[in-house]
């Protein structure tokens, strides 16, 4: 009888230890899920982009929208080291827009120049707006 009680006592202690490990394991899983959710929803995809690059990306998007509104046919927009934007036109021309000047006025000048060149039958190679007056290369 005493032996049976000792065995029951030992199995209860083992069961308590197993139960404690199971509870700790479940708590660990819950904490990992909470941490994952916090990191995923707090930072998302933007967490890996520095604020400087993120600002330039939003400028690219704004420039893209303004070019589309102005009906300027372009293929790509890229950023060069001095902070200017290089816009590759669909006809093969290249336009360099200064980020230090008003983009809207540069785009309206671009529209005017492109329309005049189309009327004259000339193809644009490079148009640079970084200077006081636009520099055109054919």
How would you sum up this structure, described in words?
The chain is α+β, with helices and mostly antiparallel strands. The chain folds into two domains: 2-48; 51-137, 3-Layer(aba) Sandwich (Rossmann fold). It contains three helices and five strands. It has helices spanning 2-43, 51-69, 103-120, and strands spanning 74-79, 85-89, 94-97, 126-128, 135-137. The protein has a five-stranded mixed beta sheet with strand order 1-2-3-4-5, with helices on one face. A hairpin with a 5-residue loop joins strand 1 and strand 2 (85-89). The longest helix is centred in the N-terminal third of the chain and has 42 residues, at 2-43. It is rod-shaped, with a radius of gyration of 32 Å. The termini are far apart. Mean pLDDT is 83; it is low at 45-53.
**Which percent range describes the beta-strand content?**
15-25%
- Overall, the morphology is rod-shaped
Approximately how much helix is present in the residues?
55-70%
For the record, the CATH class of the largest domain is Alpha Beta
- Major sheet attributes: 5 strands, mixed
- Average predicted confidence as pLDDT: 83
- Low-confidence parts: 45-53
User: Distance between termini?
Assistant: 107 Å
Strand arrangement in the largest pleated sheet? 1-2-3-4-5
CATH architecture of the largest domain: 3-Layer(aba) Sandwich
Radius of gyration: 32 Å
CATH domain topology of the largest domain: Rossmann fold
Number of strands: 5
CATH superfamily of the largest domain: Cell division protein FtsQ/DivIB
What structural category characterises the helix and strand content?
Answer: alpha+beta
Q: Supply the number of helical segments.
A: 3
